From TrEMBL:
Cited CDD domains: CE4_u7
One BP annotation, GO: carbohydrate metabolic process
InterPro entries, per the entry: DUF7033, Glyco_hydro/deAcase_b/a-brl
Organism phylogeny: Bacteria, Pseudomonadati, Bacteroidota, Cytophagia, Cytophagales
Native source species: Nibribacter ruber
SUPFAM superfamilies for this protein: Glycoside hydrolase/deacetylase
Name of the protein described by the UniProt record: DUF7033 domain-containing protein
Domain of life: Bacteria
Length: 444
């Protein structure tokens, strides 16, 4: 159980300025200022994917699930005559369960792409996908510390800003607007649009070869973006990879240009690379730029294999963990965190920058199918949670959705979302900068 405690406490330390003489124990040791009552459940000694029952308890107006406690009417914590604070519920076990991805590692459910599906998750069953529960558990611990130490515990901010935003762009398609958008237009009788897109393509200016346009939108926000390039062009088991060749001078020129202007270049691991170290390493090398992070194409993070692959390739971070079906918090946490290596029972060196919202989630026929005017009312509560807990909002907006030829009103939606977070005082960071901020915290 010490493994659980050490893993959760590490992340708790990243979020708050804690007392230098912090005394906190996972167990009733009789002398620590903070003592957390551990569960008597033997759940973590088995390989069961999900707890049998859930107990809900209210905290500051929000009902929180506890997965390893019996239902009681006790207060969250009490202070004894010696000034020690006893936390009555095992928030450590519940936090570890969610943050580590236990249900995904031990769960057998997979979709056609080998992904753990949203419908199989506790987030879906109990409808807490837009609540960062671990941050609420940490809030309980924070208040118990404030009671024990008699002082205010402050959250760590982002260069003085209340929360951070990472604008990320998966570069899947640069050369096929004429085909994907043009041919359906022609079939509907809009020959003019087809000819326009086709002639643009023939001139080497396909409508989706628009990275300068993406950069222009970022400049308007005074932001730098993270561009995930897909180095594999060949299809994989019938699934498409990139429509461009990463090695061509025109693509290499764009990579160099973006990097020279302060944007981050990252790897978009292709179909199948999530379980193949040599393939992912080759793809990383083929970008011919400094690469610190990865996001798998179609978010194909394999809960069993992908972490080991990323560790072996030396990647610093991943940003694949978001459910394509829903926006929110796949691991119930709104900060970067280090992945857990179940095979070796240890915290990994690889960080995860959780993916909160992907453009395709909003209107794909298999996903939410929101109308443009429904988007902001739907996602605003999630954004408010991130701001409340001083977290990171990670947005994925594909380059083709800055044009009129993919997501309906895609450019307008991107502007509306980013204007909202800008007005709320966010700090725009690249993915690597957001992770590096946590590294600097580690050293402090």
């Amino acid at each position: 159980m010490n493994i659980l405690f050490d893993y959760v406490l590490f992340h708790f330390r990243q979020v708050y300025h804690l007392p230098a003489d912090l005394e906190i124990s996972y167990g009733l040791d009789g002398h620590s200022r903070i003592q957390i009552t551990p569960t008597t459940s033997t759940f973590f000694e088995r390989q069961q994917a999900q707890p049998v029952q859930v107990f809900w308890k209210e905290w500051r107006g929000t009902n929180l699930p506890l997965f390893f406690d019996e239902a009681t009417d006790q207060h969250w914590f009490n202070q004894n005559a010696q000034g020690q604070v006893i936390v009555q519920y095992d928030v450590i076990a519940s936090a570890f369960y969610l943050l580590s991805g236990w249900q995904e590692y031990y769960g057998k459910d997979r979709d056609q792409y080998g992904r753990f599906p949203f419908k199989a998750s506790l987030q879906a069953r109990h409808r807490f996908i837009t609540k960062p529960l671990i941050n609420y558990y940490f809030d309980v611990l924070k208040e118990s510390l404030e009671t024990a130490y008699g002082q205010k515990i402050e959250a760590k901010l982002w260069d003085g800003k209340p929360f951070a935003t990472c604008l990320t762009h998966d570069i899947d398609y640069c050369q096929t607007a004429w085909k994907v958008a043009g041919k359906p237009a022609m079939q509907k009788g809009n020959i003019g649009l087809f000819l326009k897109l086709y002639l643009q393509h023939r001139k080497g200016q396909d409508a989706w070869f628009n990275l300068p346009q993406v950069e222009h939108e970022l400049q308007a926000l005074n932001a730098k973006g993270t561009f995930f390039f897909l180095p594999e062009k060949a299809p994989y088991q019938g699934h498409p990879n990139a429509d461009y060749d990463i090695s061509t001078p025109i693509i290499q020129g764009e990579i160099k240009r973006l990097a020279s202007r302060g944007h981050e270049i990252a790897l978009h691991g292709s179909h199948g690379s999530g379980g193949k170290t040599q393939q992912l390493q080759k793809e990383q090398d083929n970008i011919h730029a400094e690469v610190k992070g990865n996001r798998f194409h179609y978010l194909r993070f394999d809960p069993i294999k992908s972490l080991e692959v990323m560790e072996e390739t030396g990647l610093q971070y991943d940003s694949s963990l978001g459910f394509p079906e829903r926006f929110g918090f796949r691991n119930s946490y709104c900060h970067p965190f280090r992945l857990f290596n179940f095979k070796e029972r240890r915290m990994s060196s690889v960080w995860e920058l959780p993916l909160n919202l992907m453009d395709i989630t909003l209107n794909h026929s298999n996903y939410l199918q929101l109308k443009p005017e429904e988007v902001m009312p739907a996602i605003t509560p999630m954004l408010q949670e991130i701001e409340k807990f001083h977290g990171v909002f990670t947005l994925l907006w594909h380059n083709e959705n800055f044009t009129p030829y993919a997501l309906p009103q895609g450019l307008e939606l991107f502007r509306e979302i980013t204007q909202y977070v800008q007005e709320r005082g966010t700090q725009f960071l690249t993915a690597q900068e957001a992770i590096s901020a946590k590294f600097s915290i580690d050293k402090s």
